[in-house]
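# nightly structure sweep
# worker-07 picked up a monomer target from the shared queue
# config: single-sequence mode, recycle default, output format = structure tokens
# input follows
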Amino acid sequence: MGYKGLSILLIARTCEHTIKGGIDMIGQLLTGRYLILEKLGVGGFSETYLARDKYLPRHPLCVVKYLKPSSSNQISLEVAQELFENEACLLERLGRDYPQIPTLLAYCHEQEQMYLVQEYVEGENLDSYLTGKKRLTAKAAIALLTDLLPVLDYIHSHQVAHLDIKPSNLIRRRRDGKVFLIDFGSACVLSDIEPSPKSDMGDNALAIGTPGYMPDEQHQGMSQLNSDLYALGVLIIHLVTRVHPRQFQQNPISGNLDWQIYLSKQTLEPKLVETLDRMVQPQSRDRYQQASEVLADLKSLPKAKYSHLSWRLASCQRLISQMAVLAAAMLLIGIMGEKYLSAHSDQAKALVKQLKQVFRQSDSQLTMLRDLPVQAGVDRMLIAPNNQILVTAGSDHVLSLWSLPNGTLLKSLSGNTGKVTTLAISRDSKFLVSGSEDGTVRLWNIVSGQLLHRFGQHQNPVTAVAISADARKLVSGSQDGTLHCWDLQTGIRQRTLKIPDAAVTAVTYGIASGSLISASSDHKVQVWNLGTGKLQRTFAGHTQAIVDLQVASDHTLFSFGEDRGLVWDLDREELVLALPEDSAKTVTSSLNNRNIVTVHGNGSIRVWVRKAGQLVPKKAGTLKQNLDVALSPNHHYLANWSTDQRLRIWQLNTSSVY
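# output follows
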């Protein structure tokens, strides 16, 4: 996830909060802008965090790197600060003009507190490749070299040596397979005359880097530009052999690394072996001097013209081949049937059984319980808090009450004179409220089916209704921005609130007594004090229509919009989390004390799981047709109606997605 078009901000001496480090960083809002979400890693003199930028549309992710020297680190605080500032300067200089280096977004230095903010690259570092069982193939090795050498050629043209090239400092971006070079904490600018960090670091000739990836001259504090070529060569050898570089010994005669003995049965093109050998020569003078020289030799390799996607595709070949086998087997089952396979080996039968089990497991989150014909179309539907009753509002203006356990029609409630536009059910599942296009609101007794009250003071269609937790109050919102607050027992209107120049799109009662929350067509959220009738707070953050509001606690609010879901802290009066784009186009949502389930316009169903301080979506199924949907509060049932005049009730197994 890159944001190359962002303006580079250098924020100096303007930090609003003292950074305390450690776990205290989580949840901090730096300079009123960067919300810290989780810790990503710890280095020798810094800690890295994932954060969100609240100032930008869609609140993109970014990375905050905070200076915090380890107590065991031999580098002094002054040198660590100098290295940290040097990193910010290099990122500002290099990242803005090259697409495979993160962009610097901000830099802050206040007394001894320093941090920098940079572009977040969504993907995996190459360390993850080492956790698997496969070695890097020759083709993938050439592709990776072809992708990274131009990056080194670019930074070396600015006389910058990275000096810490290793798998964890290379990230393969998920969306296009491009490999990014990150962490310039050890980088320095080398003099054309004297290749040493002294040119930028005063008299401190530092041997900074990672053992195993550093050549001898870097150990001695006399790094050169082609020290990076040594590290890159060692990295490729590490991925090809799966042997850590510190295990390699030097040949007592030639002084070269003995890495080829670890190739096992894998055969590499002799020219590639020769190229890697020259990259990792112990003496700088015997090595390639420039990255462009390595690229020139790679071009002479047979079949060496691989795009940067080859590296990504190489790691996916196994998955692709497995999917091909699955698809072919399922196609065979579909065309020939199981009778064809019964004439073949037991192994084939076992394969079919295994495949059917795999597909059954993948679909087990959504199981159809009932498929019911309906005479009229369905405009709205809602499942009661007791998880036993489904209410559908038909195009004939009739409310139908269905039993979820057995799918039987319990009652039909007539009396609405216009199209039903919104529904609400009290927490005790005794009362049902329906709002209509003609501006009327009706209150029903679910048990008896009796119409208790008719509220008719809206001049425009009713767009949202809600019942308070104690079932004593009712609020109805309309297309003209009016909110009427009613006494549910007497039917008397107690208060009217007005949102200027916007329609009400959603409404809910807060958990705190006397609190009401609404959403409007101008993409804002309003918090009201019903005791005074005053607007307490307006939240702005959505860029498209807000379709639902869910209160998680007395201070946490979820707002689901067509753009995405947002989480608000009502006490601190601020945005605390922006859900990923997978939360966009929500048709309906349900929040309970275990998880959140959302259904989207494309029919996908997602269960949101808390992981590392974030809400991560897990797909739980897909509905082919999705005109109207309802979720039970316990997330066990899902109902939907489609244009084939069928009402379907499903069992949703949310636990299977964890």
